[in-house]
Specification:
It is a single chain. With about 230 residues, the chain is mainly beta. The chain is built from one helix and 17 strands. The strands form four sheets. Strands 10, 12, 13, 15, 16 and 17 form a six-stranded mixed β-sheet that branches. The N terminus is likely disordered.
Amino acid sequence: MKNFIYLSIISLVFISCGGGSDDPVTPPITNTAPSVPTLVGPVDNKLCLDNTVSFQWNRATDTENDVITYQIQVAKDNAFSQIEKTFDGADNMVSFVLSKNTAYYWRIKATDGKGLASTYSSVFKFYTAGDAVVNHLPFAPELVAPVLNSALNAGTVSLKWNASDVDTADALTYDVYFGTVNPPTAKIAENKSEKTFDTTIESGKQYFWKVVVKDNKGGETIGQVWKFKAN
């Protein structure tokens, strides 16, 4: 009889605790990165009238409503290897005193309170005004195709880029350097007015190329080196 009572009590304990497999499982909370901030000003391709430049961007959003901070980078090249100014904070505007008569490039990223960051925004470029400046150098060329570090089939490839000048009346021409050494030294096109050039690539090789942008007043800007490989 005592054994029966003990078994009954043990059964009741197991029943009251439930079979863990039937309990609802709370899914883990997944943190997501904030949205990418959008740049407001200075607008792309702007000639600024002062070298004290105010930067502004639209605030990012965060699904988990985390606190967001922003990092701005202002550089003298579009590869952001020559960063001159940075800022980290919660505001969506900041001002810097920059060098006169200089081309600058800027971008923003947002980071939430848990340390997860968005990708960088698009890149805007501008020129600070100088004293009695007659000519501004062209902006550095921007890659269009082939995509950086892409793998292409052997044969003919079209090299494509974009370029601009704050002196909008200037006529731009391009020299193209291309080859299997880094940096490329072989000039395969000179004084081109088109922003594209076709060349041939061989299987199993890696290629490097760059563009030099020249205006009709003697100014020139050397672009960064881009690369891809042939399958």
